[in-house]
Structure formats: structure tokens, C-alpha cells
Design a protein that fits this description.
It is built from 7 helices and 10 strands. By secondary structure, it is of the alpha/beta class. Helix 4 crosses helix 7.
């Protein structure tokens, strides 16, 4: 009998510990609530770089590049295509995950062919990057003058914009590559500003123009337009063009993507 009070005391202590457990668990959940909030902050994006089609390389200085490098027209085009994607990869990689469809063409060839098959291109007004708004399809203004049908001309600057024709394309790419952003390199122009004949003139002013479009995984166009850089008449080495001038274009596009993502809800 004398041991009974001790047994009762032990039972009470045990019940007390059991009752405290839910409180401690609840307290732990509350105390780690801020950690859970932090981990659910802005996710890191992953972008796919889609290179331009071979037919979308338009250069007026390949004669001079060939003269210095001895590369054929086909080799120059391939080098420029790879080089543009490489520079975009380098500039975007520190910001987000990147999938370059030219990195392993054995694995990506079929997907790249499908992407091109489901793309269309439209010449549209170059957007104002300060107050970006995705360009809309324009209606041609027609008028009858002196019995003749005239189509109103428009001198606004235009760029080659990419439009996705298949509703299933982006969901497929998102499911396979886990990319939520898509950078389409639509066209690369290297222009001799005094006209094609200036291709033979080593003092002719030149410009590199890149046409591009950026879509989200839900097919929203968040940025598009052209990026431009002047190319000195003396620069005809393809590696220097890529490393010094394509890199400037990539810097500009990466900065525009950063800005666009700030406004994406």
C-alpha cells in the first residue's frame, strides 16, 4: 500500500508528458513556418534555346568571312548558328537552367524538327522595349483611289516574329525538358549597310541584327523584337564575331528576359 502514492505520481507524470507532445509538435510547426515560406519563394526558371533554321541566316559579308577564314558558305552558316546559341547559353546559365537544343543534336534532332514544323513566322512591328507589349497582327489598310486599289504602305521597322501553330507543342516540351521559358532565335542578319555590293568594300558600315521571341510554358509572349550591334568593317574572323559581337547581343537579350520576368504574374 505505501507504494500506491508513488504509482499515482508516476502515472500523472506520464500523462503530463503525453499531453505536452501535441503542443511541442504544434510549436515546432509554427516555429518552422517561416522556413517553409522561404523555400516556397520564387522558383528558378529553366529556358530552352531554339536555334534559327538554316534558311533564316541572311548574311551580306560571307565573302569577306570566307576570304579570311577559308570556310565554305555552309561551314560559316553552321558556325554562326552554333555560336549564337553558345553565347546565349553562357549569358543565361548564371541566371537559370538552360537547355540548348544544339548541345546534343543526336538526342534533340527529332524535337527540333517538330518545333520547326509547328512554327510560322510573321513580319511585325518592332516592339518598344521601354514599354513592352507583344505585337498584334495588323490589318492592312486598303483604299480606292482613282478606281485603283491601293494598300497603305508602312515604314515602321519590322522584325521576324515566331508564332506557335500547335497547342500541344509547348506542353510536350515542358513535360520532357521541364523548361518553362522558350527563346526562339528566329533570324540572324549580318548587313552591309550600303547594300550587298558593299560586301566587297572593306570600309562599308555593317550591322548584326538578331530577331527573337520569348514564350512562357503557357504560350504567353513575354518579350520579342530585335537586338542589334554594329560590326566594324575590319572584323571578318568568325570566332571574333561570335565571341565579341554575338556576346553583346546575348547580353542584351538576357537583360530583357530578366526585365520581362519581373512583370510576369
Amino acid at each position: 500500500m505505501p507504494a500506491l502514492p508513488y504509482i499515482r505520481l508516476w502515472v500523472l507524470m506520464l500523462l503530463s508528458c503525453i499531453l505536452c507532445l501535441p503542443l511541442r509538435s504544434q510549436d515546432k510547426t509554427i516555429s518552422t513556418g517561416t522556413v517553409a515560406t522561404a523555400s516556397s519563394g520564387p522558383k528558378k526558371h529553366k529556358i530552352m534555346i531554339v536555334p534559327f533554321e538554316n534558311r533564316m541566316y541572311l548574311s551580306e559579308i560571307d565573302f569577306q568571312i570566307n576570304k579570311e577564314s577559308k570556310l565554305s558558305a555552309r561551314q560559316i552558316k553552321s558556325l554562326m548558328r552554333d555560336g549564337m546559341n553558345e553565347q546565349l547559353y553562357r549569358k543565361l546559365k548564371p541566371r537559370m537552367g538552360v537547355v540548348d537544343l544544339l548541345e546534343d543534336t543526336v538526342k534533340t534532332k527529332k524535337d527540333l524538327e517538330d518545333i520547326y514544323r509547328f512554327l510560322s513566322y510573321q513580319y511585325q512591328k518592332v516592339p518598344n522595349q521601354e514599354h513592352y507589349k507583344a505585337p498584334e497582327k495588323e490589318k492592312q489598310q486598303k483604299a480606292i483611289e482613282k478606281g485603283q486599289l491601293n494598300v497603305e504602305s508602312n515604314s515602321d521597322a519590322r522584325f521576324m516574329n515566331a508564332k506557335i501553330k500547335s497547342a500541344s507543342l509547348v506542353p510536350y516540351l515542358y513535360g520532357k525538358y521541364k523548361t518553362d521559358l522558350y527563346l526562339f532565335v528566329n533570324e540572324l542578319d549580318i548587313k552591309a549597310l550600303n547594300g550587298p555590293a558593299a560586301d566587297m568594300n572593306t570600309n562599308a558600315a555593317r550591322k548584326i541584327v538578331l530577331h527573337y521571341t520569348v514564350y512562357t510554358y503557357d504560350a504567353k509572349e513575354i518579350n520579342s523584337g530585335i537586338a542589334e550591334v554594329d560590326l566594324p568593317p575590319s572584323v571578318n574572323n568568325p570566332n571574333k564575331i561570335i565571341n565579341s559581337y554575338f556576346s553583346q547581343l546575348a547580353d542584351l537579350i538576357a537583360a530583357r528576359i530578366d526585365k520581362a520576368l519581373l512583370s510576369v504574374k
